[in-house]
Amino acid sequence: MKVDVAIVGYGVVGNGTAKILEEKKEILKKRAGVEINLKKVFTRNWNKKFEFPLKENQKANSLDEILNDKDIKIIIELTGGIDFPYELALKAIEKGKHIVTANKALLAEKGKDIFLKAEEKNIRIGYEAAVAGGIPIIRALREGLVGNKINKIYGILNGTTNYILTSMFKEGKDFKTALEEAKELGYAEADPTLDINGTDAAHKIAILASLSYGGFLDFSKVHIEGIEDINLMDIELAKELGYTLKLLAIAKSHNGEVEVRVHPTFLPSDHQLAKVDGVFNAVMVEGDSVGETMFYGRGAGSLPTASAVVSDVVDIAKSISLGVGREIEITSMNWEHKDLNLTKVSDFYTRYYVRFTVPDITGILSKVAAIFAKYDISIAAVLQKEKVIEKYEKISEKLVPLVILTHTASENNLQKAVKEIEDNNLTGAKTVIIRVEDEED
Amino acid sequence: MKVDVAIVGYGVVGNGTAKILEEKKEILKKRAGVEINLKKVFTRNWNKKFEFPLKENQKANSLDEILNDKDIKIIIELTGGIDFPYELALKAIEKGKHIVTANKALLAEKGKDIFLKAEEKNIRIGYEAAVAGGIPIIRALREGLVGNKINKIYGILNGTTNYILTSMFKEGKDFKTALEEAKELGYAEADPTLDINGTDAAHKIAILASLSYGGFLDFSKVHIEGIEDINLMDIELAKELGYTLKLLAIAKSHNGEVEVRVHPTFLPSDHQLAKVDGVFNAVMVEGDSVGETMFYGRGAGSLPTASAVVSDVVDIAKSISLGVGREIEITSMNWEHKDLNLTKVSDFYTRYYVRFTVPDITGILSKVAAIFAKYDISIAAVLQKEKVIEKYEKISEKLVPLVILTHTASENNLQKAVKEIEDNNLTGAKTVIIRVEDEED
Q1: pTM (predicted TM-score)
Q2: Which of A213, A216, A232, B206 has the fewest Cβ atoms within 10 angstroms?
Q3: Under 8 Å between Cβ of B23 and B17
């Protein structure tokens, strides 16, 4: 049995995918019992030099050449952006072609539309490559952990920001220097905005939340903070308290709601995720049966991402060869057939690292502590520096950092307390609030 | 569509499996689109108290009640040992019943027979629970990494020994004390022989090697060393050199052979696996496309193991509901249709930690180094202690430990060099040799 497939978008991941499909044709046939034939590839400009050159007869000059080819059963969508791949997906579904995509923005923002239309037409959508590159996390959630209620899923889903935070934490570099180095090494794109501001990680956690909790969510309501404003001072102060800073993407469910958020987060330094350094990704899944599991690997790059693309292509080609469609899937994206209600930011409960910038006089701590107590915020640790360490950014000589680590508190109360402290002129600069993921018994 | 299943063997994992199948019936139906009905359970003695009590009509009084029940399509085999489950498996296959098992000894030692017979009768064997408990590593290798040539797969596959080694490394306990504590905490069985001597980890890596390299192997030829003779001194000396001791199970392929071995191994302390502590398991998989990936979680316990059992039950029930058998499987255990050739111990190439016990006189190091050079063994680091630290076990006052860390060398040459050094009366006690997993460029 031979299944014809086509790639649309021939960039780094496209080249890697073609390379695996062509060079591993035999091994894939042995393992999956089906021959996958890369019949056509479409890209806007064939005049470039490609990492993996194609045969002339594989080059399509228009999208229609692929869409109208009845033999092509799977379209591997590897373009960027949202609008073009969205239109392509709808057309492919209309034509009865299955889709494999690495496009997290597309699925996070237009997933509901695409998955519902695919359901209608009995079309499969493979999206292993859209989250955490080569790590087979979708398969794990969809099949391996099928007997679990997912209590929580959280992880490091963006390699660029993890590289930057690792070099800030380990080498004491400031954000700008670390970002420049990441660009030089190819770990950050020329325009790294969507990585740095947390959107990329948010796209991925939105997909994981949809799959884990069985419904669609309104991406525009996901709470997202990036790492642009992270000050080295906070990384170094928290290190003294035993914490490491990561850009965490978190999804958990409670009271019929799903909490989805992306923000810089302090983790205890002995936490498995705290040990994930550089460009690596890792996802921690807490299931009610399995307990804690973690999946670690490369979240980006040509061949790691192509590895995930190919796993979906094989899976779908296999089902085509058996004459079945979506009915073969364990855990469809919409298994609860509902829209997920997202928890509002003010309803978050977590631990907090709060750095006030206060005058170096006695009595301040007791005033701050009194306001925290008023808002029912319990203090777990305090770190007050006698003298500002010189290498930190300029703080007026008369001001010092006062760090308070709280027990689990309400976001709403925390924000009110900080506002009251600032309104009372107890601080001399903007207060820094960073959430802490460190569960208490 | 309803699929009837039965459990044989009602111990901790059996109870956990029944609990998930009964309590999660609805969620499994929603996710997988198939109803799984736990029709019968067989155990030798129904007069005990069980963690998860069954309905009276679920209790089978004989195995035949299950084997002869035409409605039962899947037998979940959760007994111990090898002979009984082997016979059961053959009978189940004969009766056309699919099998899900957590029995690693059975598959590692009798797998060839079972898988070949299952192939003949179009029967599926689910064995996710046989390796690394709740971690979905079989699915990852079978499907998620299907586009990869697996260069190497290695990991911590036994929680008991990892607990012991962690408490030796972190708390400076000796082997016996750590073992006793593990027993008290329920992390070691009353008779922990198969864990301690490496057999359990070897069963698991043999299964992973078979799947990764597509054939069967002669388990009796797998190289196995346990942790019974590990001396705290070596853990502490290697710590000074930046290494952590783990019981590693390793499989890799080269020159048409597969190297499978289990032994205490030093890892660089910043290696991801070195950070896996206590009873946790973790498997590192190096694929040629995906690069380095790691899978981490609980390797044992009632619900974590049951989580894996249930994932196989759902998968197979799903294929039954679609009317298909083994043809649905991506990557069968025997996809290369061959027997694997195992590399002989003398052909291993790796790095070594060698601790000689030598007289505290000048000139010894140069003699030892000369013999290493003669056998083409390059020295990476030397640690010679002036004085024996008191807490180490008694070494005659005139003898001191001399540790040599080698670059990659031939096992054959290493053994010859050590023998020549001992034959030349340069040492005063048995030399300790521990392999080091630390790849060099």
Answers
A1: 0.96
A2: A232
A3: no
